[in-house]
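=== RUN LOG ===
request id: a7f3
mode: sequence -> structure
chains: 1
length: 110
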Amino acid sequence: MLDRNEVLSMNILIAGGTGYIGSHICVELLESGHDVVVIDDFSNSKPDVLDSIYKITGKHVKFYEFNVLDEEKTDAVRGIFKYYLAGASLGKIVNMLFAKGLSFSTGHSK
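=== RESULT ===
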C-alpha cells in the first residue's frame, strides 16, 4: 500500500504547454514528480518559456513543436500518441489550446 505522501509518477501530455496557464501546470506537475510532454507551436508564447520551466524545476519537458490542428502534422500527432500510449505510459492529456482572445477565437472558428 502507498504512503499518503508517495506519488505515482506518470507521463502527462500538455497541449499548449508553453502558454501562461499551460506553463504553470507544467511546473506544478514536474514539481509533483510527473514527467511532462508538451506540444505547442508558440503562437501565444515564446520558446524561452521552456528554459524558464527548467530554471524553476530543474527538469526538462519532452517538447514537440507544431500546431495540433495542422492537417499536415496529423501523422506526427498520431506517432506521439502511439509512442506514449504503448504500454500505457501516457497517464493524462491536458488541453490548454486557446486563442488570445474571444474575438480572435470567434472570428476564426470553422
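=== NOTES ===
The mean pLDDT is 79.
The first helix runs from residue 20 to 31.
=== END ===
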